[in-house]
Amino acid sequence: MECIEHRACFGGWQDVYRHASSVLGCTMSFAIYLPPQAAERRVPVLYWLSGLTCTEQNFITKAGAQRYAAEHGIAIVCPDTSPRGEDVADAEGYDLGKGAGFYLNATREPWARHYRMHDYVVHELPALVEAQFPVTGERAISGHSMGGHGALVCALRNPGRYRSVSAFSPIVAPSQVPWGEKAFGAYLGADHAAWKQWDACELLGGAAEKLPLLVDQGADDEFLELQLRPQLLQAAAAAAGHPLTLRMHPGYDHSYYFIASFIGEHLAHHAAALRGQAGVPRG
Amino acid sequence: MECIEHRACFGGWQDVYRHASSVLGCTMSFAIYLPPQAAERRVPVLYWLSGLTCTEQNFITKAGAQRYAAEHGIAIVCPDTSPRGEDVADAEGYDLGKGAGFYLNATREPWARHYRMHDYVVHELPALVEAQFPVTGERAISGHSMGGHGALVCALRNPGRYRSVSAFSPIVAPSQVPWGEKAFGAYLGADHAAWKQWDACELLGGAAEKLPLLVDQGADDEFLELQLRPQLLQAAAAAAGHPLTLRMHPGYDHSYYFIASFIGEHLAHHAAALRGQAGVPRG
């Protein structure tokens, strides 16, 4: 593991590391913010999953989350959004292949060899982080758009692994929208039965743990009606009796200006859960 | 004037406009953050001047300043760093020509025709902003690196025009460092007498107004010793009896992670001055 960026930020350190991933079979970069408290004790970790086209850089440069992480004493780990490298399969378009791993384990070629972002994000990366940095085993997870989908799916598939989960503008029902249909068709094949285990709306019914979901959505998001469709999550949560706080924000779009505006409330939500308090967000 | 970006952010709006500049003889873009208070009353304006290679985008995407601007009810206007367009002179290297206007009025060809960033930033842009947006005539100014130089020089050359001034990692003595020597030699010619009116350390002795200077500098800034040399500003301020708060921050570098970490304190400093309070920063 090699440190490739090391920058003071809000009294802590915003670092970027490069390492060999055995799960993905390639070299990966991830970012980690260590708050000032990490100089003296182990701190819990929020995993942030970014959206289509992003790398580990977008969130750390644009979201302004370090201020809140420093206030609450939480580390933030940001993985890349897909496997990387010249021998990794790719496709035309920003919504399949590199930058578009969808946080699942692909089963179809040419994707199955490298595209195992679920296992990387849920298992390999936390094991590395927990072995190498001053962090506890307490984890929270959040993300944006494709990464919001990833956060919800990682939490729903892995009961007990996260103390809290939240999402900005998530793709809540990938099986029913164009982004998800294209990606799932390629990564998982045509059989829609295999898609259900990677779809938050499908997973809600069988969730073994009723971890409350906090979802913020811009009401003027340009992808709202075609790709995001939060009302499907609302219906699925109601049917499953799963606690969901869905907040619609008039005027806000899909950009990082939206994330920046509300990331402080998400950090507070995760901090409350990581402290062992009831992590119920305000409605 | 044409609005090319309009995004909700911390209850206000982060907009970008394009307009024809008569001072610069080209089309320019600038960003303006309008805090929520601007929906109900006129608000004062902080002008932010960015550093080498930047456009109007860097500060608005990376500094996280909108949160504080929304708290204090201050608009933030970010101009570009040079004239732009195909017929605007340019040079090899990132430190001369486009992206490197140094906030002065050039007198030498091929630069003199378009490179009049001082007059644009101090006069034309504020006149436009004050005519078109819900703002008062109260102004503050700040910036980073080349833009920190610009903020100090604009304030020192124009007594009474700004209520407060601050800078991050400014080029305090361009006449004495490589970045400034290259730019001033090209824009102003070889005669160093002409350089003095664009050099903060030189201007301090004759300043008609003792506006307190707030300067933050990373102690691990990679440009500290060669290009920035804050001790020259400290000596010039002492000799002139000019109030200066220079804060050195161990560990911090030249990046936006440094700006983000302390921009909240600068907004508070400017807010105090714009409210008519003594704008004396903590030491």
In short:
By secondary structure, chain A is α/β, with parallel strands linked by helices.
What can you see in these coordinates?
Chains A, B: Serine hydrolase involved in the detoxification of formaldehyde. Chains A, B: It catalyses: S-formylglutathione + H2O = formate + glutathione + H(+). Chains A, B: The active site is at 145 (charge relay system), 221 (charge relay system), 254 (charge relay system). Chains A, B: GO terms for molecular function: carboxylic ester hydrolase activity; S-formylglutathione hydrolase activity. Two copies of one chain form a homodimer. In chain A, helix 2 runs parallel beside helix 9 (256-274). Chain A is built from nine helices and nine strands. Chain A has a single domain (2-274), classed as Alpha/Beta hydrolase fold, catalytic domain (Rossmann fold, 3-Layer(aba) Sandwich). Chain A starts with a strand and ends in a 9-residue tail after the last helix. The longest helix of chain A has 19 residues, at 256-274. The first copy, chain A, is 33% helix and 23% strand. Chain A is of the alpha/beta class. The first copy, chain A, has a nine-stranded mixed beta sheet, with helices on both faces. Chain A binds chain B through residues 7-11, 14, 61-62, 64, 66-67, 218, 220, 249, 251-253, 255-258, 260-261, 264, and chain B through 7-11, 14, 61-62, 64, 66-67, 218, 220, 249, 251-253, 255-258, 260-261, 264.
Notable features of this structure?
9-stranded mixed sheet, 9 helices, 33% helix, Rossmann fold, alpha/beta, homodimer, 283 residues
